[in-house]
Write a structure and sequence with these properties.
Blueprint: H1 21-24, H2 29-51, H3 59-85
Helix pairs in contact: 2-3
Length: 86
Amino acid sequence: MDSRFRGNDRQHNYKGLTVKASQYREISLEELTDRYDELRKKLFEMRCQSVTETLENSKSIRDTRREIARILTVIRQKQQIQKENK
């Protein structure tokens, strides 16, 4: 994964990597959308594992949800900026 997805002062998500909102702001809208789709699929898999009790770390669900929220926030901010520039 890209070096801009590494953080030292946040809790780790399911891949052991974290991303701050400021790091997401440097990424293009397309990349953010791809990352969002990837995390949604991963969240679904983790929820299925949680139900079958094969999930190793239940905290990873919370971390993934928070990362999704960060991405959606940055996507919304970028869309508002684009609207203002038109």
